[in-house]
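Review box. Two proteins, two foldings.
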Amino acid sequence: MISADYLKRIAVWSRDLSEREIEVARAGIVERSYRANEFICMRGDHFEYWMGVVTGLVRIGTVSRDGKAISFTGLTSGAWFGEGTVLKNEARRYDAVALRETRLALMDRATFFWLFENSVAFNRFLVALLNERLGQFMGLVEYGRMLDAKARLARCIATLFNPALYPEVSRHLEITQEELGAISGISRQNANQSLKALEKEGLLRVEYGGVTIVDLDRLRAYGE
């Protein structure tokens, strides 16, 4: 069983729980490691866990009937996901893939519902999380249909700096161009070209193994 201090490090939502709630939460969480490009769960799976990214990077997406891969978003350290599926007790509607060596914290459904039914602090977090998630996916639909590759990449990078969804991220994002392409739904070549253009415009700096954000507000509004 993980310790209370460790839980507070990997799960921002746990920091406002009571001692009793923390004990229940940590007893219901296990950790599991995944290799690069390994499926965590697939569309149609009954994978009854709420998941938190401890380390690594996860791509959320699906594959259309004609074989086209569609990316929804990427999840970095500190992000928790899958609450909707757990609440509705349904099969997963997306694939979750580890894009690099990734470690997840997995909370079982019984523990999730105990917190849901007994913890005011946990419910406040869930409401805020679901509200942010709705806004994120409404934005994804909008710019996925209206923006070119460079603007989609800019907006995709900006979404990774939402403090409610990704509480541990800093202005430097350790991510490769291939990974950025995977989570934004463009090729590595397009990602490389778009990053160079965004760097010339002063929005970010491309560095070895990642990017550093210079102007987050402009990235969030890019293409408007």
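Next protein.
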Amino acid sequence: MVRVVGENIEPGIYPIKEALQMAHEQELDLVEISPEANPPVCRIIDYQKFLYEQKRKQKEIKAKAAKIVVKELRLSPNTDEHDFNFKLKHALKFLDEGAKVKVDVFFKGRSILYKEQGEIILLKFADAIIDFGKIEQMPKLEGKRMMMIIAPKKK
């Protein structure tokens, strides 16, 4: 026995064979909607159309999902004040647009010896930008680059 629902159907509880026969007469499919219910609930629908509708809904949800943009800025361990301010201004603009900012210090050659200097620059950068964004990932050394990720603050 199953509970049958659908368009052009008298909702009720029918034997499975009778439910299948009703679906066959309308050239539709008998689809189990809720197997846990007592008795199980089945719907008479066009299954291919049902699948198509579900795919379309998933596509819509995916299209409406917020896309996260990550902008990248590169500094060096001995970036001077003017360049630092120039990069800071760009980072503020990116955060204002709602993008995340990935700031990294790239160590060339033997400059890897000055890891502390790179970390100081990133922390200075984070301190200057603290009103506009929150640090998502603290400075971390990966190979020859030390990076930090900053997310925009909610308005």
